[in-house]
Structures are given as structure tokens and as C-alpha cells.
């Protein structure tokens, strides 16, 4: 190995080390997704959210691909501020700069949006997850999920994220995060194991989700999470021109 | 009773209301002959519409299901009759079942009835035609059309077991009394921005998924027109207090509901299709002066309301006999 090669390598290294921080300053969303943020604590998103950004159902890691940029950025800011408590995401979000938050949110929002093939409206069976999703429980003032999250739960605007495309595990966890563990512990006070736990999500606009999560039964939470978890993701692109029957 | 006095006070704060007619309770009513809902009972069990599972699988059940589909997807399934982005379910929550959201089970059994709105006895079909003409700013379907027939069947089935001709608790929107100090549009704007804009948009434009309206527009060209019952502040206040924000009904105070209803209804929207010879003042006198609390033909912040907005397509306001 000659001197020249080494010099070239050193020069290349100097150029790289000069360029890398610049790249980090410009907050390249794709690079954060793949390699992490400028702070090493900001782990690469793909580690948990999958190479395609569609999440990892087994671990309960949510889909980010195609979610609105404003929604993703808000969640990251809420993790930082403790409005959304999560031991994995809080340190990561806190290690991202504001620019990086914007960049990574934009990158994921530009990936394909979840799509559910529009079919004839289904007639849900009372008491099923589909019933909660499509009819709600108005005797408890619980609207059908699709009233705000859109037909088939594909999401509406930047404040009502898609439920379709998320795993049952993730949706169930989130409903529990809004609900807390009060009821569960009250039922088994003797065991002492299940301590009353306060809700860990406080970031729903206008508190819209809190009462819904609190007033659903455990069985309903599970069923409705499974309903949306089972909708899948069509390979057809999202057709903005069509009506979706409810 | 303080009702008349309260109303008078409310009227006094209206900017530029000419002829603040001495109002009585009947002026708040949607339909003169039709009584408003009985006094709000606490802990009352409202009428229960039949469960979906009780619908028979026969020709009747099929017609009812078709009616329900029209009720929910009005714009998608009957675009020729709907001139804006509204669907029946926007005002009649839970598919026409929810108390204090003008439930069908409290409406269907009250017809035929005299209505001051058009000064005649209306059939239920005519009442629904009114929804198409005003709330949906469209063209009323013929009384014997498939859509009116199906919607009638759906309403009839929802009303299974409800007494005929008896005003049930939960009917209409159970309007809260006008607040003692009147309403305040500026205060309503703050309520709107805090509680409503997230769904209905900063400019009341609503939100869609594809072509389907999810959160309805509250003013502007795609909303209900100046002839719709919801343009009355008292009516909108009732709907809002009981039903908004979705899932959090009855959390706003009566005052907040009136304020935000006034804010929403102080914006321009499609013209009243009953417009008389292009004359807003004549139209106000004939159709609005005696129709609850509303801002049609009234100047707010120096701007005359009731001028209408251009709508898409052919559904520009036109005089209707």
C-alpha cells in the first residue's frame, strides 16, 4: 500500500468528516431513518419501524409510512415533552433536534399512504370489533372510530391518524395508554401486582380519545384493535377521487 | 317564565337587528304545530330504536337497508339531489338514532304536521324534501322517488314502537335557552378555534377523505344554505351543546354553545332558495324575521349577511315557489 493511497484515504476521510456534520445540520430525513440522528442516542428509525416504515407488528412498533408529517412531528414533540410517555421513544425523540424531527416526519409522510380497498359497506355484528369501529357505542357516547378516523380508518387530515395499517397490538397498547390501568387494578386489588397506573398518553387533541378509551370495555378494546389490525394494506394506490361508502 | 325576557335580551345584543319582534317561545320552534321536546329530563331513558339485528331479511328489510345507506352516504349515492358536502348523518348522529340529534324515531311519528316554514300541512316526505332543499342545498327528490321511499321505510323502522303524534323526550335538538347576557360572536370564535377547528377546519371548510366528506363544512359554498334550520343560532346551539365535539357532547356550556353557534352562523353560505326577487330584505322579512334567532339580512361588523355564495354547478340559488 503506497503513500498515495493512504493520502487519498485520509483526504477522503477529511472530506467526509467535513461533509457529514453539514449533512446532519441539513437534517436529511432519509439518513436519519436509515442511520439515526446527529446525536447517537437517536437510533435509526428502521431498527424498530421496519425497512419499509410499515412497523413491526410482533414488537408492537407502529407504521410510520404515509402518516401525515404534522402528526409524526407532533408525536415526536409530545414524546420529548412527556405528553406521550414511552420508555423507548422518549430518549430517541429527545435526542432529535427540531430540524431532524421535521425532516424525519416529512420523509415518512412521503411514503405510500395505507390503502384499504373500498368494498360494499359491511353489516357488522353487534358486540364485535367491527361494530365499535363502524357503529360505536352511543349509549356511552362513544362514536364509531371511522367517524373521525375516516372510512375504513384510513385517517383524516393531520390530526386523525390512520388506524388501518397499524397492528392490533399497537392499537390496543395505545387505547390502554389513554385509559390507564385503573379499572384493571380495581378488579384485583388483593393481588397487589397490578398497580393502578395513570394514563401514559395525554396528547390527544381536546381530550377526544381519553373518555373513549376509558369507557370501552377490555373486550371491546381487544376486538376493535383486531378489527383494524386485520384490515391490511392494499397494494393499490390510494384513489382520492372516489367515494367511500360507510 | 323568563323565556321571553331572555330572548329579548339576546335579541338586544344582536348587532343591527331591525324589528326585534317581541319573541315568544314558539318562535324558537322549528315547526309551529310541532312542539319542542319536553323539558330536559335528568336520567331519563330515551326511546330505544330497534337493534340492527331485529331487521328482517326480507323485502322490507332490504328497503330499510337501502334507506339507511342513503342516510349515511347521501352525497355518494344521490349526488343529483345533494348540492353540498352534507349527508343526513351530519345532523342526525348515530344514523338517526341519537337523542337530541333530531332522531328519526321522534320525527317520523309526528307527521303529517302543519309547518309555518311553508304554511301548510307537510307529509313526512315533504319534510325530508326540505332537508334536501335547505340542509343539503340541493334539489328535492320526488315524493315517490326511490330515495324518499327508502328513507321513509328506514325512518318508519327506526320508529318501531314509538307512539304516533306524541312529542318524545330527545326530539329535535333540545335547544338551550338563550343566555341571559345574550351571545357573543367574538367569544364564539375562540370556542371554535379551541374545540371545532381541528375537525371542521380554520375556515369552516370541513375535511374529506377522497370525495367523501368526513367532517362537514360549517359555512361557505359546501355547507347548508340560509334556509336550513341549522342557520338559526338557537337550533345550532342545541345541536352543538348535545352533540359536539363528537363523543364529548354536553361538555360545552349553554353559553359556549350559543356563542359558537353564533360565530358559525355569522358566516356566508349558499343563498336561501326562497330568495324573493333577489331582495335580501324582503326575504328576511318574509322568511327569517319570525324564524328563531338568525343573522340572515343582518349586518355584522358592517357586512350584510345573506348575500349567499356561488356554489359549484347548477345549484345556484333560484327562486322557488
Could you give the topology of this structure?
The complex is a heterodimer of chains A (246) and B (321).
Chain A: H1 3-25, H2 29-35, H3 46-49, H4 69-81, H5 89-95, H6 98-109, H7 129-134, H8 145-149, H9 168-179, H10 182-187, H11 208-215, H12 218-229
Chain B: H1 3-12, H2 59-72, H3 74-77, H4 88-91, H5 93-96, H6 104-107, E1 113-115, E2 120-122, H7 124-135, H8 146-158, H9 185-200, E3 207-209, E4 212-215, H10 233-243, H11 254-264, H12 280-288, E5 299-300, E6 303-304
Antiparallel strand pairs in B: 1-2, 3-4, 5-6
Give an overview in words.
The complex is a heterodimer of chains A (246) and B (321). Chain A is 47% helix and 0% strand. By secondary structure, chain A is mainly alpha-helical. The model of chain A is unreliable at 9-24 and 183-194 (pLDDT under 50). In chain B, α2 packs across α8 (146-158) and α9 packs across α11 (254-264). Chain B is globular and about 60 Å long. In chain B, β1 and β2 (120-122) form a beta hairpin. Chain B has helices at residues 3-12, 59-72, 74-77, 88-91, 93-96, 104-107, 124-135, 146-158, 185-200, 233-243, 254-264, 280-288, and strands at residues 113-115, 120-122, 207-209, 212-215, 299-300, 303-304. Classes of the chains: A mainly alpha (246), B mainly alpha (321). Chain A binds chain B through residues 121, 123, 125-126, 135-136, 138, 141-143, 147-148, 150-151, 154-157, 159, 205-208, 211-212, 238-246, and chain B through 51-53, 65, 69, 72-73, 75-77, 93-95, 97-98, 194-195, 198-199, 207, 209-212, 214-215, 245-249.
Amino acid at each position: 500500500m503506497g503513500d498515495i493511497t493512504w493520502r487519498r484515504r485520509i483526504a477522503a476521510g477529511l472530506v467526509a468528516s467535513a461533509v457529514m456534520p453539514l449533512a446532519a445540520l441539513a437534517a436529511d430525513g432519509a439518513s436519519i431513518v436509515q442511520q439515526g440522528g446527529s446525536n447517537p442516542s437517536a437510533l435509526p428509525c428502521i431498527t424498530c419501524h421496519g425497512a419499509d416504515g410499515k412497523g413491526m407488528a410482533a414488537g408492537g412498533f407502529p407504521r410510520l409510512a404515509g402518516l401525515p408529517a404534522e402528526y409524526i412531528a407532533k408525536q415526536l414533540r409530545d414524546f420529548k415533552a412527556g405528553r406521550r410517555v414511552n420508555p423507548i421513544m422518549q430518549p430517541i425523540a429527545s435526542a432529535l433536534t427540531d430540524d431532524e424531527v421535521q425532516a424525519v416526519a416529512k420523509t415518512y409522510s412521503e411514503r405510500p399512504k395505507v390503502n384499504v380497498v373500498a368494498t360494499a359497506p359491511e353489516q357488522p355484528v353487534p358486540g364485535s370489533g367491527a361494530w365499535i369501529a363502524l357503529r360505536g357505542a352511543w349509549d356511552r357516547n362513544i362514536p364509531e372510530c371511522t367517524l373521525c378516523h375516516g372510512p375504513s380508518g384510513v385517517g383524516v387530515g393531520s390530526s386523525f391518524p390512520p388506524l388501518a395499517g397499524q397492528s392490533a397490538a399497537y392499537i390496543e397498547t395505545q387505547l390502554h395508554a389513554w385509559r390507564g390501568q385503573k379499572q384493571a387494578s380495581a378488579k384485583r386489588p388483593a393481588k397487589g401486582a397490578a398497580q393502578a397506573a395513570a394514563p401514559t398518553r395525554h396528547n390527544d387533541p381536546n381530550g377526544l380519545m381519553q373518555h373513549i378509551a376509558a369507557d370501552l370495555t377490555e373486550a371491546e378494546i381487544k376486538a376493535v384493535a383486531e378489527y383494524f389490525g386485520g384490515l391490511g394494506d392494499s397494494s393499490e394506490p390510494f384513489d382520492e377521487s372516489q367515494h367511500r361508502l360507510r | 317564565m323568563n323565556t321571553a325576557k331572555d330572548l329579548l335580551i339576546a335579541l338586544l345584543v344582536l348587532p343591527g337587528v331591525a324589528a326585534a319582534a317581541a319573541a315568544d317561545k314558539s318562535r324558537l320552534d322549528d315547526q309551529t304545530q310541532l312542539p319542542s321536546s319536553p323539558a330536559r329530563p335528568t336520567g331519563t331513558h330515551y326511546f330505544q330504536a330497534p337493534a340492527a339485528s331485529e331487521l328482517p331479511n326480507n323485502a322490507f328489510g332490504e328497503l330499510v337497508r337501502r334507506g339507511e345507506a342513503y342516510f349515511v352516504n347521501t352525497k355518494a349515492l344521490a349526488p343529483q339531489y345533494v348540492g353540498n358536502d352534507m349527508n343526513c348523518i351530519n345532523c342526525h348522529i348515530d344514523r338517526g338514532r341519537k337523542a337530541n340529534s333530531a332522531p328519526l324515531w321522534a320525527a317520523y311519528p309526528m307527521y303529517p304536521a302543519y309547518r309555518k316554514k311553508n304554511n301548510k300541512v307537510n307529509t313526512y316526505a315533504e319534510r325530508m324534501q326540505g332537508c334536501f332543499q335547505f340542509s343539503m342545498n340541493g334539489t328535492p327528490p320526488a315524493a315517490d322517488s326511490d330515495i324518499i321511499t327508502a328513507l321513509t321505510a328506514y325512518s318508519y323502522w327506526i320508529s318501531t314502537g314509538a307512539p304516533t303524534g306524541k312529542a318524545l323526550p330527545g326530539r329535535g335538538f333540545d335547544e338551550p335557552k338563550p343566555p341571559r347576557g345574550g351571545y357573543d360572536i367574538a367569544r364564539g370564535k375562540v370556542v371554535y378555534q379551541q374545540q371545532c377547528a381541528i375537525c371542521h377546519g380554520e375556515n369552516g371548510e370541513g375535511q374529506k377523505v377522497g370525495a367523501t366528506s368526513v367532517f362537514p363544512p360549517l359555512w361557505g359554498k359546501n355547507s347548508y344554505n340560509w334556509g336550513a334550520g341549522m342557520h338559526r343560532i338557537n337550533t345550532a346551539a342545541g345541536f352543538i351543546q348535545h352533540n359536539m365535539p363528537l363523543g364529548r357532547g354536553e361538555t360545552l356550556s349553554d353559553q359556549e354553545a350559543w356563542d359558537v353557534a353564533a360565530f358559525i352562523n355569522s358566516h356566508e353560505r349558499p343563498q336561501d332558495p326562497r330568495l324573493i326577487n333577489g331582495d335580501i330584505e324582503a326575504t328576511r322579512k318574509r322568511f327569517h324575521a319570525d324564524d328563531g334567532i338568525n343573522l340572515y339580512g343582518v349586518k355584522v361588523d358592517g357586512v350584510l349577511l345573506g348575500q349567499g355564495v356561488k356554489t359549484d354547478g347548477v345549484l345556484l340559488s333560484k327562486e322557488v315557489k
